[in-house]
Amino acid sequence: MEALLGKNIEDLKAVCVKYGLKPFAANQMVDWLYRKRVRDIDGMTNLPKAAREAMMRDYEVGRTAYSDVISSSDGTRKYLFPFGPGVEAVMIPDKDRSTLCVSSQMGCRMGCRFCMTGRGGWHGNLDPAGILSQFMEVDEATVLTNAVFMGMGEPLDNWDSVRRVIDILTAPWGFAWSPKRITLSTIGVTSDVRTGESPLRRFMEECSCHLAVSLHNPFPEERAELMPMEKAFPLEKTLSVLKEYDFSGQRRVSFEYIMFAGINDDKRHADALARMLRGMECRVNLIRFHRIPDSPLMPSPLPVIEQFKTRLNNAGVLTTLRASRGEDILAACGMLSGKGKKI
Question: Under a CB-based contact definition with an 8 Å cutoff, are residues 148 and 185 in contact?
Answer without folding.
Answer: yes
